[in-house]
Amino acid sequence: MVSPSPDVVEYRYNFLGDTYATARPDEMGGPATIRFLPLRPAPDRLSVRAIDRSGRSSGTTTYSFMVKSGRAPVAHWKLDDAAGSTTAAAEVGTAARAGTGVTFGSPAPEGTRVNSTAGLDGSSHGFLTPGAPAVDTRRTFAVSAWVRPAQTDRTMTVASQDTGRGAGFALGLRSGGSGAAWSFAIGDAQVSGGAPETGEWAHLLGLYDAETGRAQLYVNGYEVGTKVEAAPAEATGAFQIGRVRTGSVYRDRWHGDIGDVRVHDRVVVPDEAAELARRTPKLLGRWSLETTTGGASPEQKGGAPLRLAPGATIHRASESSCIPELDPDCPYVPPALVGDGHLRLDGEGGHAATDGPVLDTGDSFTLGVVVRLADSEPAHPMTVLSQAGEHTDAFKVRYEPSTHAWQLVVPEKDEAGAAETVVSRIQAADGGEGQGHRLAVVYDDATDKIRLYLDGHTNAQATANFPNGWHSTGPLQVGRAHTANGWGEYLHGDVDEIQAYAGALRDKDILGLGWGTDPCLC
Known about the structure:
Elements: E1 8-15, E2 21-23, E3 43-52, E4 61-66, E5 75-77, E6 87-88, E7 96-98, E8 102-106, E9 117-121, E10 128-129, E11 141-149, E12 156-162, E13 167-176, E14 179-186, E15 189-193, E16 202-209, E17 214-219, E18 222-229, E19 239-241, E20 244-246, E21 249-251, E22 255-264, H1 270-276, E23 282-287, E24 296-297, E25 306-308, E26 312-316, E27 341-346, E28 352-353, E29 365-373, E30 382-388, E31 393-400, E32 405-411, E33 420-426, E34 437-444, E35 449-454, E36 463-465, E37 476-478, E38 481-483, E39 486-488, E40 492-502, H2 507-510
Antiparallel strand pairs: 1-2, 1-3, 3-4, 5-22, 6-7, 7-10, 8-9, 9-22, 11-16, 11-22, 12-13, 12-19, 13-14, 14-15, 16-17, 17-18, 20-21, 23-40, 24-25, 25-28, 26-27, 27-40, 28-37, 29-34, 29-40, 30-31, 30-37, 31-32, 32-33, 34-35, 35-36, 38-39
């Protein structure tokens, strides 16, 4: 920024949608330079005013510009080569030679664009290298990969780049006295965070920003740890996958699977990091609860039906035998919650259930439902959804009248009397009126968070840490849950539009649940 006026002492500026900031020249009337990192490809605008030493302001000068998408990687190995291959083809850069401890054709993380990965056996032969550097480590760069460790009890390297007697950086897993954590190290600086689990996929991205001089780490699209000041060494040696150089030898070899290794020579912004780590949820079942055949309400695409017990019926508003406008004695029949019908439960034993489990509760999942309580002052807690383990429920969503709140209750283990994590959203009971409420449970195993949504929204009081989700083997239950005396907490009310997904839906997708369609998962 520069002004023709010789007595300018500062410039006030802002970018589109931001507050004003101030930049001061080194000497009065001189130019001032600002550094700006756009966070998304979109039109933007810079507005600037010059301020003289008397405090007078110039008019505003505006510059409009378009922010392009970031450059493609400078090196990229999918590692989805055919079984028996001895090299990994490069989408960009140089093909990587594979040691004999590398096996192609290993599984890939579900819900991603990765088709297969490479398995490394942790031996001295388990590595890949292009034999050349992939990036200038003294400048801004980022390195990322999908990884699945076969063990977490020792330090292991996903990617590094050689210096003369060491490594310019190392991305991987570090194990110590306090347990294992993901790690990104540059020189003597290291940032770490997250909790690696044996056999569980994670997406790692290490970033060094030469403008700020800091290194940071993303795990599964979320920044972890604390940014650290880093002084990178010149690393003109070969890029390595699965090992790191220390002195004249390689060590900390990776044991597990690696896929989709990318190297950028620029900042990867947070939205990009999240998109690289995104796993698209998979629809497991949707029950519209509008019809019944043989005592069961079908899943929309022919999956496991919900079998109705006595006290559970499908209500269809169109089946009313009288018309209130013509018959003053005709009782009011509420419309269906969604579509043409819904499930009505009597609160005395009425429920519905699948024949077996629908959700893998040990992994990420999403479950949505529309529910309307029949009572304005329920006499006891009532459960709308649960999935059973052997001794208790892996989770249950219930209304707790004593606190006037919907609760998500998650036992820590499959044991009677196990400690429970409970989160809630306050909401008055319906009393049989209105359109009900849209509830959703989202368990994100990647972040170890579980959330309860009410009408598309959640908050801190409805969110909890849950690092050890466990696998339940029982069926999905609608309208009841385990209690100390067996089954109980029967729901008195209406239920509709049950939707189950493998994977954690995003906030914007949750808003689309319960409206008679599948939410956008793009």
